[in-house]
Design goal:
The chain has 94 residues and is mainly α. Helix content is 80%, strand content 0%.
Amino acid sequence: MELRKIFNAKISPTKAMGRMNKWYEKVMALGNNNFRSVIKTFKNHAPTILNYFRHRATNASAEAFNSKVKIFRSQMRGVRDRDFFIFRLVKLYA
């Protein structure tokens, strides 16, 4: 819940990094090894994660579209005619 509060707050990237560091310390104090890998991932991708606080944008729409394409492709049981497949995608989702 505390991590969610950080992402919901409209703060600058530097303030967000400070709050995330405090959250890292609290989680490390718990001693749970599962969360250590989460913290390691956050630290490895910190610049990318902090971009969220600059622009308040995610790639959720692109991920949703990719999911729709996968579902559509599975319903057609693969793609034989690539041009027709793209034509159908444009007609359905454009």
